[in-house]
Design a protein that fits this description.
This protein is an all-alpha fold. The protein contains 12 helices and no strands.
């Protein structure tokens, strides 16, 4: 855990990703929340309330060891990542809503993530970890998550031309960094991951499918339009695995706790693609029915 990857590389990697997110954000993105209060409120309720409860139930059902159980709860507490914006765009969701949700989730996670994780530590009691909402760890989460986003927004505000020019390079760098972080977490913990992969794959696949389904079905039940429901599905269903890995490795200093996020980071891409294709096929069938 004192390796350069854990102590320096992971926080810097996530900082670059969050900075890239900030380059895409303006105060207007937050203002959009007021124009879509119902869709935003439902997505946030799914993300902050429903998913931790669902994840807790899955952890009990799969009987994970304490450290992995807390790792799953850490993943559930992590906000949506920039990947949600890409999938929403590919499958005709409301990308503007995704941007707004990602922005507000990044802010709220600074407070909610430490609370959920520390409650999980109190419940599962993994070893002799300190329980309680610690100010130092909360500040570390703040610096890792919110500070780079704020810096990116400042750069866009003062240097919009530079922000536009850097958009594609930073996006590409974010994808590369995300891949390297997940691969690094898998490689560095391969011995443990090999022993626990089957158990983790089952709960991770279940959690990802339920997250995507909840994010889509709940808004539809409340008569949110299809584009916004698709945006909600990917925002709620695609968690920021990189953030979970960084918190586990660098803040909590428990490498094994990053394993659920590492497995999730690999499996969420094909699962989200299949989910999007299923939605697209349903839309195609509806369009064909209307034409006939």
């Amino acid at each position: 855990m004192d390796s350069p990857l854990a102590m320096i590389g992971l926080p810097v990697a996530l900082g670059v990703i969050m900075f890239g997110l900030g380059l895409d954000l303006t105060p207007g993105d937050f203002a959009r929340i007021g124009k879509r209060p119902k869709a935003v409120a439902l997505a946030l309720a799914c993300q902050l309330l429903l998913l931790p409860a669902v994840c807790f139930g899955l952890v009990l059902l799969f009987r994970l060891p304490p450290v992995l159980a807390v790792g799953m709860m850490l993943l559930a507490a992590s906000p949506g990542g920039t990947t949600a914006n890409l999938y929403s765009h590919l499958f005709r969701g409301d990308v503007a809503l995704n941007i707004s949700l990602t922005a507000i989730n990044s802010v709220i996670a600074v407070l909610t993530l430490p609370v959920i994780v520390n409650l999980s530590i109190a419940w599962f009691q993994p070893g002799d970890m300190t329980v309680g909402l610690q100010l130092k760890k909360t500040i570390e989460v703040f610096m890792i998550v919110l500070a780079p986003v704020g810096l990116g927004m400042l750069v866009r505000g003062f240097k919009p031309g530079f922000a536009r020019a850097m958009d594609k390079p930073v996006r590409l760098a974010s994808v590369v960094i995300l891949t390297l972080v997940i691969a690094g977490a898998v490689v560095s913990n391969f011995a443990v991951l090999k022993d626990d992969f089957i158990a983790l794959a089952g709960i991770v696949v279940s959690f990802c499918i339920l997250s995507l389904g909840i994010g889509f079905i709940v808004p539809r039940l409340f008569r949110i339009n299809r584009e916004q429901s698709i945006a909600s599905a990917f925002e709620v269903g695609l968690h920021n695995a990189t953030l979970a890995i960084v918190i586990a490795e660098s803040v909590l200093a428990v490498p094994d706790m990053s394993l659920p996020a590492a497995v999730y980071g690999v499996l969420m891409f094909p699962l989200a693609a299949v989910f999007g294709l299923l939605i697209s096929r349903k839309d195609a069938r509806r369009a064909a029915a209307v034409e006939t």
